[in-house]
Amino acid sequence: MIIVTLIASLAAGMVWQQYRAVQIEAADRARAQSAWILQGALDWTRLILKTDAQGNQQKKIDHLGEPWAVPLAEARLSTFLAADKSAASDDEGPEAFLSGSIEDAQSHYNLRALLGGATVDPLEQRVLERLCSQVNAPPGTAAVIIAGLRDAFPAPASTPSAPGTAGPPASQPQSQNGPLQPAGVDQLAWLGLDADTIKRLQPYVTLLPKPTPVNVNTAPREVIAALFDGMNLASAERLVQTRKVKPLQDPVNDIQPYLPANSQPQATPTRVSVDSSFFIVTGRLRLDERQLEQRSLIERQGLNMIVLARERINQLLDR
Question: Low complexity: which segments have biased composition (predicted)?
């Protein structure tokens, strides 16, 4: 009996080890396949943005009526791989589903505007305060963000500049005593913001590698209203409805009818635009009970699409 028990234990251990080896190999294979599929989807979106740039060489205008702004609804991967409809049957192809979208990063307010010069531009400070008020963020949130960002991105002492000038370059050295330099809105928690506040601000603010104007053809009404002193949500909504019929062609002149009378000139080329260079590409691959999401930041330089950052999130879906 002792010998039989020993043999059974050894056999059970061998079977378990073999089972674990098969599971690990299957997981590694699925991970590699998912990475290749999402990379292919990213290359596809880069081609879409390049095609859009080729069509906009005469007049650079980006708006929500263009093909890049249409999200890809979840579709079975076999529909992309099949040569014709008859080949894409329910019994063929991997049980994987792909979806994604391209978002204009310049439709959000770039927090880099708060980092120009030795002091904060009062106009840009008011913009952030209005945004924080619109999303019902805790009092003092704007001050916390400004203080944290300026501690993390100190202005170069050798090149003082006046308020309203361009912010520090992306290669600016890390502050010795300040917090780590956040690379995106998610990392604003390093400055002391809680998760709920970050979630409220995320649809309206961004942190890009360099200062950028807001694209008024793609920005939501909350960002447009906060961008100008004296402008309310109603006027911003009128602009949003108007651009659906005809996108703005000249941001400086076309936006003037929506601004308060006798207002200071706030619509400058450094603050507003009708074209964009930064885009956020989101790809999602659902495979069985798991979903892999990849978010990439792309900078469009002419016809070159440069991937600046990439983040992958592996999620276990509830069944």
Answer: 155-174
